[in-house]
Amino acid sequence: MTALYVLDVPENTSVAKVAAEAGAVVGKVGPYFEITSDGSIVVDRRATGCRHAVWYSCIAGVAGGTIVQHDKNALQVDPA
């Protein structure tokens, strides 16, 4: 299982929402959104509406996977 952790603050809510719309499961662990999937987690930046500064600072952690893309277009975490 691949997990992506994003701090639960108003600026990051759309990241969790878009991930859920793409098929990931979104839960909470402490002050973080825990975004999990059996496969890859892919979040389209434009769909989130995040500005670049928020986008590039949204990742709090990754478990069971590796970030393979984190650019102005998308964030992709693939299973390890």
Query: Number of helical segments?
Result: 3
The CATH class assignment is Alpha Beta
Q: Care to count the β-strands?
A: 7
**Rg from C-alpha positions?**
11 Å
Order of helices and strands: EHEEEHHEEE
End-to-end gap: 9 Å
Helix content: 10-25%
CATH fold-level topology: Phenol Hydroxylase P2 Protein
Proportion of beta-strand residues: over 45%
CATH superfamily grouping: Monooxygenase component MmoB/DmpM
Strand order of the largest sheet: 2-3-1-5
- The CATH architecture term is Alpha-Beta Complex
From the helix content, strand content and strand pairing, which structural class follows?
alpha+beta
The total number of structural domains is 1
Mean pLDDT score:
97
Give an account of the 3D structure:
By secondary structure, the chain is α+β, with helices and mostly antiparallel strands. It has a single domain, classed as Monooxygenase component MmoB/DmpM (Phenol Hydroxylase P2 Protein, Alpha-Beta Complex). The protein has helices at 13-21, 45-48, 52-56, and strands at 2-7, 25-29, 32-37, 41-44, 59-63, 65-70, 74-79. The radius of gyration is 11 Å and the shape is globular.
What is this entry, summarized?
With 80 residues, the protein is α+β, with helices and mostly antiparallel strands. 22% of the residues lie in helices and 48% in strands. The model has no long low-confidence stretch (mean pLDDT 97).
Please outline the helices and strands.
Elements: E1 2-7, H1 13-21, E2 25-29, E3 32-37, E4 41-44, H2 45-48, H3 52-56, E5 59-63, E6 65-70, E7 74-79
Antiparallel strand pairs: 1-3, 1-5, 2-3, 4-7, 6-7
